[in-house]
Amino acid sequence: MIDLRMIIYAAVSVCWLVAPLFLGNYHTDVLNNIAIYALLGLSLNIILGYGGMFHMGHAAFFAIGAYATAIINTSYGIPVLWLLPLSGILAGVFALVVARPIIHLRGDYLLIVTIGMVEIVRIALVNNVFGLTGGANGIFGIASPTIFGHQINGIVNPKHYFYLLTAFLAFTITVFYLLEHSRFGRALKFLSSDSVAAEGSGIDTSGYKLAAFVIGAFWAGMVGNLYAGKITFISPESFSFWESVVMFMIVILGGAGSIPGVLLGAFLIIGLPEYFHGLQQYRLLIFGFALVAMMIFRPQGILPPKQHTYATDNASEKKVSS
Amino acid sequence: MSLLRVENVVKFFGGLMAVGDVSFDVPQGCVFGLIGPNGAGKTTVFNLITGNYNLDKGKILYKDEEITGMPTHRVVTRGIARTFQNIRLFSNMSVLENVLAGCHCRMSAGPISAMLRLPKQRAEERAAVARAIEELSFAGLEAQAGNLARNLSYGNQRLLEIARALASNPGLIILDEPAGGMNEYETTSLVNLIERIRKRGITIMLIEHDMSLVMRSCEHIVVLEHGRKIAEGIPSVIKSDPRVIEAYLGSDEDDI
Q1: Structural domain range at position A156
Q2: Residues near A89 by Cβ (< 8 Å), separated by ≥ 6?
């Protein structure tokens, strides 16, 4: 079983890597969008998937990363990729400040507050807060990222950008996989399973919830940086409440707490509609039906998380049976 | 020497006095029973000790240090572990993972060392898994390590809660009705387990309705009724205390 899964993952990875060689610029750009949303989904998955917190304002963190990059790059000319960590840190600090007072809220209450948060951020951007954000027009003329003097232009040459995004996606998947199967990842799963029992087992539940928010926001901020560098022009529209809903759906539809699930979710929700342009007008209708059907027949998502096996499990089983 | 000291503890729920001015000492190394009729406030006392509730008055000291009002996870880190009356396991996670939850507070690796998979973090993970397996063997559950917690029998789920609590390396373990829902055979092995826990040098505090278990296991008993302490002593004294008999069976005057 595990071998079969590994073969499928390997095959999908190879297809993904060679796909731009066979696709035109337009369809490669669709893949870039899938990669961006996969990254956003993975970062939201820390909060929503492992931590079980209904957070529907993830676009706010994404926006802060993108705007930080845009403002600093256009004003001071600092290269976009250099701003990658800073974008993450700013989004993380924002999450720390904003999530701190709301972290104890449960389920739907948290949901409502986070919706409020993303709306406030969007409105602040539209109203040109501190005269930095360019109001409803947004910010033009963000430089493309450069690696060793080689410019990676997301508009002219999406294939180059594809490999930049894929590299970051691969890094993210690896790091989040390690995180999922660590003391930190387990603590989040414990507290989302039963927070009273988690606290009673010695886990600082509110501290871990906050840490999940900060890590998720940090990553979303970095994705914001790559997004700004890709399209070189950002406006508040790109960070609306709807964007948060899309990220939320990617995680829930694919399988909350499951990295392959989130990747599949991003492909289905961002990719499929692009490839079925003919159905444009029915798109949301089909979408709605698909989601309703999912919630009824497979509430855990298409690819729910698999049970993790620990190295010593087998050893102890053998000992018992012999 | 007393390991845990509860001093004049008072807890109100709205206008209802759940615990009124209760004091007792739990000596180091003993099996301590807290009994009383339903609604006497036993679980509330446990919840006050472990910081699940905040007390309105009074003091709680563990190893002569005040733990009053401390958040639960810090109480656990100090060395007081507990089980729950209505079993609270992480039901969709494996038995082993449930015990790893108990190991959590004795580990230190943070998210960054996990993301970088530092050698120290890996060594700590291995040690925690080994420790968890040890605790499972101690509770007789090692064969179930890979199963989901919710697939265990009721009695085994109670044992798993104890194993999880033991994994946090406690000085005091608080068991809330450990024999609830257990059959005769399971209860007997529980009595054995309690004895083995005591031999490890861990002090045990338990609430139990099964009087035969209480009388067999406990060396010191406190009886609560309507949130007040009505008796305290060794089992043989408690058994013949008229106030205790009255609390459990009702007095003649109640019938009139």
Answers
A1: 2-240
A2: A218, A221
